[in-house]
Design goal:
By secondary structure, the chain is mostly helical. The protein has a domain at about 265-430: Helix Hairpins (Orthogonal Bundle). It has eight helices and no strands. The protein has helices spanning about 5-70, 75-100, 105-135, 135-340, 345-435, 440-470, 510-515, 525. The longest helix has about 200 residues, at about 135-340.
């Protein structure tokens, strides 16, 4: 599978990012668990706080109730009663706060028992205060000992039970929170180690997937440089063969000129035949246009027939309705004749005949409707067939027009070919002159081979730099050799004599010089790293 370098890097960082996101999600989930447990602890603490306020208020009410029995002056009694009223208000506020908090079923049951106790004890406390205010201390003390104090002690016990449940739940939540903390710490530690190993693995895989194909390409380039050097030597030998082949080419040019003259005469004959084919295609196009127009007229006639059939169908429907109404009237007349008895016997016979005629008319109308509907269906099929024929004629017209156009183009092309053959015939006379220059071009090819050798050497240097860039050292150093290969003299054709002229004396055009100029190539030009490596 081919994957770009950029895609590999993005994949590696993407996988790392996914692992980081997974760590974040796990951490956030554990934080959420800790937060929910802290909220539960805070809620239980608030319950305990409000119940403690309730306890203090109950004790304050109890103390103030006893105070009304101790203090005798009116001012002190009024102060005790006011403090007791404030304590009761604080008690009611605490009860309301606890009632508004979310409670478990056990807490609801305990708190309801406490509510019942407070509601039952309040009248006795009020009665004790009233008896003490009325100086009935003996009765007040008895009521306090028998009713008020036991119920107060029971209320305190219920409060303690409620607090015990809340504190027990807090202890469980604290243990659960600590366990969640330990589990989260272990999980994050394991995930962190996995992340580190995964990151190292991704880095190793990506690095390996980059260096392996680059080394393969570098080896291929190194081998290619040697092959280019050998090819440049072979090019020098080919230059000698080119010089020898130039003489043989001159004789072939004469034969080609005579062949071109024969081709020119054949093209003239083809041109005449093409013009005649153009005329025939024009006539076929006109005939197709005429047939298309006649088919359109026939379709219009069929449409008119269809409309007439539709109108006849409507008329037959009216006749059918009249026959139906007549049949009903005949039945009514027969009924009336039957009622008239013997006097209406003749009228009944006439009514029966009218009814028979109405039924026959209805049957005839139905038969006619069936025939008309069949005609309408056949007309519709005829319209469809005529439409298809019209489309086929239109397509034939279009194809005939295209054939006419193509034949015109072929005729024009034949004329151009005739002109081209004439020009080629003239050009062949110039080829002889060009052939004489091939010997000089062979000399230039030898010079180009030397430049190609220089390019091969430059490529080898670039491969070394690339190898050093990827691997840190030149692993191809021992693979390099002498690039200046020499061709055995037997590789040159017989009779070929290498020129001893310096290359500066060879007549070269500016284009040839530019083509043979050594170009400085960078490693990025040899191996574009954003392309798909071959081996991955």
């Amino acid at each position: 599978m081919k994957i770009k370098l950029g895609a590999r890097i993005i994949f590696g960082f993407g996988c790392t990012l996914l692992v980081v996101i997974a760590l974040m999600i796990v951490s956030m989930y554990n934080m959420y668990l800790m937060h929910s447990k802290l909220q539960e602890v805070s809620l239980n603490t608030e319950k305990i706080k409000q119940v403690n306020i309730l306890t203090q208020s109950m004790l304050k009410v109890r103390l103030d109730t006893r105070g009304t029995m101790i203090f005798q002056d009116a001012a002190t009694l009024e102060l005790e009663n006011n403090e007791k009223a404030a304590a009761r208000a604080a008690m009611d506020a605490a009860r309301k706060s606890v009632h508004n908090l979310p409670l478990t079923e056990e807490e609801k049951a305990n708190f309801q028992n406490l509510e019942d106790n407070i509601t039952a004890a309040r009248p006795f406390n009020t009665q004790v205060a009233e008896l003490a205010t009325a100086k009935k201390f003996t009765e007040a003390a008895a009521l306090l000992a028998d009713k008020s104090d036991p119920m107060s002690r029971e209320g305190i016990a219920l409060i303690n039970r409620f607090v015990d449940v809340a504190e027990k739940r807090n202890a469980e939540v604290n243990r659960s929170a600590f366990q969640t903390y330990e589990n989260s710490f272990r999980l994050l530690l394991v995930l962190g180690m996995i992340f580190v190993l995964f990151a190292f693995g991704i880095a190793y895989v990506i690095t390996r997937s980059i260096t392996k194909p680059v080394n393969t390409i570098a080896n291929s380039l190194n081998e290619g440089a040697g092959q280019v050097a050998a090819a440049s030597s072979q090019l020098s030998a080919t230059a000698g063969q080119l010089s020898q082949g130039s003489a043989e080419q001159a004789s072939a040019i004469e034969e080609t000129s005579s062949t071109l003259q024969e081709t020119a005469s054949m093209l003239e004959q083809n041109n005449a035949n093409t013009k005649q084919a153009v005329q025939l295609s024009e006539q076929a196009k006109e005939s197709a246009d005429k047939g298309n127009n006649q088919m359109s007229e026939m379709m219009a006639s069929i449409q008119e027939i269809k409309k007439s059939s539709d109108q006849i169908s409507k008329i037959i429907k009216v006749i059918d309705d009249i026959a139906f109404q007549t049949n009903i009237l005949a039945l009514n007349a027969a009924i009336e004749a039957a009622r008239a008895g013997d006097a209406g016997a003749g009228f009944a016979v006439v009514a029966e005949e009218v009814r028979n005629l109405a039924q026959r008319s209805a049957q005839a109308a139905q038969d006619t409707t069936t025939i008309i509907e069949a005609n309408i269906e056949l007309s519709a099929k005829g319209v469809n067939i005529a439409e298809k024929v019209r489309e086929a004629l239109a397509e034939i017209t279009t194809q005939a027009r295209k054939v006419s156009e193509l034949m015109g183009e072929i005729s024009a092309a034949s004329q151009e070919q005739a002109q081209g053959v004439e020009q080629v015939n003239k050009a062949m006379s110039q080829v002889g002159t060009v052939t004489q220059q091939n010997a000089a071009n062979a000399e230039e090819s030898a010079s180009a081979a030397e430049e190609l050798n220089a390019q091969a050497d430059n490529m080898r240097k670039i491969v070394r730099e690339l190898s050093a860039l990827v691997n840190g050292n030149d692993i191809l150093k021992n693979q390099t050799g002498d690039l200046e290969h020499r061709v055995h003299p037997s590789a040159y054709p017989s009779g070929y004599v290498a020129s001893n002229k310096p290359h500066s004396n060879i007549a070269l055009t500016n284009t040839d010089k530019a083509a043979m100029k050594t170009k400085v190539i960078s490693p990025e030009d040899v191996i574009p790293l954003e392309k798909d490596p071959q081996h991955f």
